[in-house]
Amino acid sequence: MMKRIRKAVFPVAGLGTRFLPATKTVPKEMLPIIDRPLIQYAVDEAIEAGCDTLIFVTNRYKHAVADYFDKAYELEQKLEQAGKTEQLELIRNVLPPGVRAVFVTQAEALGLGHAVLCAKPVVGDEPFAVLLPDDLIWNRGPGALKQMADAAVVDDASVIAVQDVPRDQTSNYGIVATDAFVEREGRIRAIVEKPTPEAAPSNLAVVGRYVLSPRIFDLLELVKPGAGGEIQLTDAIAALLEEERVLAYRFQGTRFDCGTHLGLIEATIRYALDHEKLSDSARRLMQNALDELGVVDLD
Ligand code: G1P
């Protein structure tokens, strides 16, 4: 039986060029939805799924991510002196007790597969998760990774998050072909990175959550540069399918592609409308904005 995952890998070495000029100094993983950076949502999801070791694969421009997870002594002291216990808790809980962060450098941007391979010395020989913080998954119940981690143990298999996308968008994703689904799961028979709509085996796309068997590391060492000239995680998964069971998992939740402007806007709207304290005001100001701009017909 597959062991429960305890380690989660966060590839955060990308350049974030879509969000320039903001990402000239602020890594895209640090862009906020309301008051928390994207990376925090992914970290919380990993912790909820049972992970206690978080491995960030960064580069020399991403000091802000390491700083964010470091202890902020001066700030803590000031908040303590000012009696601001609520805020103190917020910054202390960025990493709850018992959870540790490990930083690994990816010296060259050789692709997602290469970034994951950089975490091998820390992960070792046990199943682990990969979370792409750009993909923010909102759910009222258990997080997507928790759902997948449970399935991985029960089904003794690697598990990859998927969702249907419009045909004309297949070239933005890894696309899978599967056996018939039973409830939320279908065994993957083929996977291809960013195929054209004509070449795509389906319109079932990989979303940035993976529970992987450690065998993937050996396979990553063998894969040659693929789509975009990069070492692709998808290509190693294609090799893994030949040896082990890998399941596609239709998670419960809504995924926002926060690697795009619209995705970030959509996520902000959703989190604002669902926010304990802000929802009523957010609804009102959205209505005002629509009224003021004279938007009568959203179509
Ligand atoms: C990566 C993966 C791709 C996956 C996607 C999900 O692509 O390579 O298979 O579908 O994440 O967000 P990227 O978006 O980094 O180009």
Topology at a glance:
Layout: E1 7-11, E2 32-33, E3 36-37, H1 38-48, E4 53-58, H2 63-69, H3 73-81, H4 85-92, E5 100-105, H5 112-118, H6 120-123, E6 128-131, E7 135-138, H7 144-155, E8 158-164, E9 174-178, E10 185-193, E11 204-212, H8 215-222, H9 233-241, E12 246-250, E13 254-257, H10 261-273, H11 279-292
Helix pairs in contact: 5-9, 8-9, 10-11
1-O-phosphono-alpha-D-glucopyranose is lined by residues 112, 132, 135, 173-174, 193, 205-208, 233-234.
Structure description:
It is a single chain. The protein has one domain: Alpha-Beta Complex (Spore Coat Polysaccharide Biosynthesis Protein SpsA, Chain A), CATH 3.90.550. By secondary structure, it is of the alpha/beta class. Helix 8 packs across helix 9. The chain contains eleven helices and 13 strands. The chain starts with 6 loop residues before the first strand and ends in a 7-residue tail after the last helix. The structure holds 1-O-phosphono-alpha-D-glucopyranose (G1P).
Index terms:
single chain, 299 residues, alpha/beta, Spore Coat Polysaccharide Biosynthesis Protein SpsA, Chain A, five-stranded mixed β-barrel, two-stranded antiparallel ribbon, 11 helices, 34% helix, 23% strand, binds 1-O-phosphono-alpha-D-glucopyranose
How many domains make up the 3D coordinates? 1
From the 3D coordinates, which CATH architecture would you assign? Alpha-Beta Complex
Distance N to C terminus:
51 Å
Contiguous helical run count: 11
CATH fold name: Spore Coat Polysaccharide Biosynthesis Protein SpsA, Chain A
Q: So what's the overall shape? A: globular
